[in-house]
């Protein structure tokens, strides 16, 4: 089977959920004997066609202001001129996915994984109704739309008017064994967050909560992994609160240094991300796999974490004292018990489910919501 993945960013530099998901799924399918390629649009310095960790990777020049949209005419042209049995595009609100829909030919099958980045900017949220119309108008070209959470499944089936039989549910995952087997050496009162530094990810809320935590735990520290347009504002916020000595900005950690990220999860006393909303949130699964207590906003897909007992939910993340109380509660209470399979899947399990979807669209039969976490 000839398979091409289409995604924004690049596997060589990005450690975000979409790029990680494409990397692990492509590796699984390659091991299964399929011919796998990855097409992507980095925000700068595209390398053309390269081999990355055994995968055939093509980076196309494109237009991506503020690391968003990722438009590339070369990507569209190459998709039109090449042939694959399966085109698997990641990101509902990503221009490469929209280009893949346009480029798909009648003898190809198109799979879209939503990975919707629901917590996008107000400007991008304004575009969602237009995206819904776009996917509805070209819905006949979509053979299967994979949702990564119950939250996303319910959202898409309400918002995008395409054949309900084309929806299925398969979450993204992590290398569960690698995370769960890491040696744990908890540093008392170390708070970890991992996110793109954009306002919607809510890192400013953790900085605002830290002074309240420091009143009771003066040795508390906040470690921030990630980079983005808000970094300067966040550094300024920490300085204005006079807590900069308690805040460490690690910046962007490349995928090749995943062990460093795993080490931070394994050292953290608490993991927290006060995002506006998430379609799934792999960072929470990473924390759960390393048995790190989780504090999350009680909204969107994060509600599922709270429901199964894997996280403490914060009702009002803009209330710094409430966020601080949640963090301190996790300092003082033992880790809750929960079923890890209800929080995150392994890539072997996901790979088998995605392979089943590929076979299904190549040999159609009717099906509905499949691959749910309860199965």
UniProtKB/TrEMBL annotation:
Domain Glycosyltransferase subfamily 4-like N-terminal as annotated: residue spans: 17-178
Top-level taxon of origin: Archaea
GO MF, one annotated term: glycosyltransferase activity
Glycosyl transferase family domain: residues covered: 187-329
UniProt cross-references to Gene3D superfamilies, sorted A to Z: Glycogen Phosphorylase B (3.40.50.2000)
PANTHER family cross-referenced by the UniProt entry: GLYCOSYLTRANSFERASE
Protein name per its UniProtKB record: Glycosyltransferase family 4 protein
Source organism of the structure: Candidatus Iainarchaeum sp
């Amino acid at each position: 089977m000839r398979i091409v993945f289409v995604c924004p960013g690049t596997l060589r530099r990005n450690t975000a959920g979409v790029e990680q998901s494409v990397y692990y799924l492509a590796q699984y399918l390659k091991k299964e004997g399929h011919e796998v390629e990855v097409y992507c649009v980095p925000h700068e310095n595209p390398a053309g066609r390269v081999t990355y960790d055994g995968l055939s990777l093509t980076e196309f020049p494109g237009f991506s202001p503020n690391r968003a949209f990722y438009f590339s005419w070369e990507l569209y042209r190459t998709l039109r001129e090449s042939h694959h049995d399966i085109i698997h595009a990641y990101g509902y609100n990503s221009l490469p996915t929209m280009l893949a829909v346009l480029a798909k030919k009648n003898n190809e099958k198109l799979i879209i994984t939503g990975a919707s980045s629901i917590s996008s900017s107000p400007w991008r949220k304004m575009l969602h109704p237009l995206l819904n119309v776009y996917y509805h108008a070209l819905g006949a070209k979509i053979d299967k739309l994979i949702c990564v959470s119950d939250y996303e499944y319910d959202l898409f089936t309400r918002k995008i008017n395409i054949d309900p039989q084309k929806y299925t549910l398969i979450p993204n995952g992590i290398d569960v064994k690698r995370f769960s087997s890491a040696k744990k050496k908890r540093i008392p009162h170390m708070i970890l967050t991992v996110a793109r530094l954009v306002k919607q990810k809510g890192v400013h809320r953790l900085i605002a909560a830290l002074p309240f935590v420091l009143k009771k735990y003066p040795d508390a520290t906040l470690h921030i992994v990630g980079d983005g347009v808000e970094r300067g504002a966040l550094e300024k916020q920490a300085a204005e609160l006079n807590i900069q000595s308690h805040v460490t900005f690690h910046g962007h950690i490349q995928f090749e240094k995943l062990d460093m990220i795993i080490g931070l999860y394994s050292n953290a006393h608490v993991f927290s991300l006060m995002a506006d909303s998430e379609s799934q949130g792999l960072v929470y699964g990473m924390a759960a796999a390393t048995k790190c207590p989780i504090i999350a906003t009680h909204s969107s897909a994060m509600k599922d974490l709270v429901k199964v007992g894997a996280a403490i939910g914060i009702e009002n993340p803009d209330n710094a004292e409430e966020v601080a109380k949640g963090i301190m509660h996790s300092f003082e209470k033992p880790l809750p018990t929960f079923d890890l399979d209800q929080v995150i899947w392994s890539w072997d399990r996901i790979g088998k489910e995605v392979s089943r979807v590929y076979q299904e669209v190549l040999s159609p039969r009717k099906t509905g919501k499949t691959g749910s976490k309860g199965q």
